[in-house]
Design goal:
Blueprint: E1 2-6, H1 10-19, E2 26-30, H2 34-42, E3 46-48, H3 51-56, E4 61-64, H4 68-80, E5 84-87, H5 95-108, E6 112-114, H6 122-132, E7 139-148, H7 160-163, H8 167-183, E8 187-195, E9 206-213, E10 218-225, E11 233-240, E12 243-248, E13 252-257, E14 260-265, H9 271-285, H10 293-307
This protein binds nicotinamide-adenine-dinucleotide.
């Protein structure tokens, strides 16, 4: 499989390291920034400046990892050139653009996978399996908290024109996807307070949201980017009719049911490799990769609803 990778920044280079571990994959990279191209070339990658240059090499598939404002447009270009697409979240900054990507994929008969890489963590997969097997009974309440301490992020993440939104687009949409994935259910109502409390920026750094699901479960989603050192992390609690579980992301999964407490320790993970392997094996098998473009639209719709920008889900 010949992959064209657009965007050689923090996400793009993680995709490139992952894809290069898969036998039979070849990779060409593209980035407008000459320094980013030089860095990738130093790792042995063939690089070109633009999406048009990349598509001129006729790759089988494109991986799109550019700032949010350009994701949908780049995906549409790649689809129209006949590529399958692995598209970074949040997929697009509007529902209309996300839907255009889905429609184009259907029209040209190509697949779109969304880079919700956290699904490929062993702790998340184990928790989903426990819930699906009914170990904690019907889920009633999810509490998902992701807080980041001060850290370097690309500067565009705080600029609305390029980012489209703030921490819900850069980080929190992974929480939304996790909750949908764990529950295996769709949202039916979203309420939220979206605030800029901790940074002097024009996008949000703090969100408290309530999402109700069709099956009746309530999810509380908290997203925060702290301005200072913080005891930060990502924890997901799921309470069910017969027990409960806790994911301490990257560290452990604990659960209790029927009077017995159990736990799975964290294990080494490479979630970008998990996603790359799913993408390549699906293409080789001629099946649709997962998470799908429809998963991307569903998560984007929930975040836009938090922003007050989408019709009710
Ligand atoms: N799935 C994940 O866990 C994860 C992690 C980090 C970032 N991301 C996502 O990846 C995407 C990129 O984020 P990042 O942190 O890598 O940003 P980044 O700033 O580190 O990298 C983006 C790169 O895209 C290049 N670029 C911008 N516009 C371009 C264009 N039109 N043509 C070619 N190159 C262009 C920039 O020069 C830059 O090198 C975003 O959608 C972000 O949300 C996902």
């Amino acid at each position: 499989v010949r992959i064209g990778l657009l965007g050689l920044g923090s996400a793009g280079m993680r995709h490139s390291r992952a894809f290069l571990k898969i036998p039979g994959v070849s990779l060409i990279g593209a980035d407008l920034d000459a320094e980013r191209r030089a860095g990738a070339r130093a790792h042995g990658m063939t690089v070109v400046p633009t999406l048009a240059d990349l598509l001129a090499t006729a790759p089988d598939a494109a991986v799109i990892a550019v700032p949010h404002a350009y994701l949908a447009e780049a995906a549409l270009g790649a689809l129209e050139a006949g590529c399958h697409v692995l598209l970074e979240k949040p997929m697009a900054t509007t529902l209309e653009d996300a839907q255009r990507v889905l429609d184009a994929a259907r029209t040209v008969g190509r697949h779109v996978m969304i880079s919700f890489v956290h699904r490929f963590r062993p702790d998340v997969a184990a928790a989903r399996d426990l819930i699906a097997r009914g170990v904690i009974g019907r889920p009633t309440l999810v509490v998902d908290t992701m807080a980041g301490g001060a850290s370097d992020m690309p500067a565009w993440v705080w600029r609305r024109a390029e980012a489209g939104g703030g921490m819900m687009f850069y980080n929190g949409i992974h929480q939304v996807d996790r909750v949908r994935f764990l529950l295996g259910d769709e949202a039916d109502r979203v309420r939220a307070e979206v605030r800029t409390l901790a940074h002097d920026v024009d996008t949000e750094d703090t969100v408290g949201a309530l999402v109700t699901f069709r099956g009746g479960a309530l999810a509380v989603i908290v997203q925060h980017k702290a301005p200072a050192d913080a005891l930060a992390g990502w924890e997901t609690q799921v309470f069910g009719m017969a027990g409960s579980l806790l994911i301490r992301t990257g560290q452990e999964v604990r659960w209790t049911a029927g009077g017995t407490a159990s736990s799975l320790p964290g294990s080494p993970e490479d979630r970008f490799l998990g996603a790359a392997t799913e993408f390549v094996s699906a293409l080789e098998a001629g099946r649709a990769p997962s998470p799908s473009g429809a998963d991307g639209v569903a998560a984007l719709r929930i975040v836009l609803e938090m922003y007050g920008d989408a019709p009710s889900v």
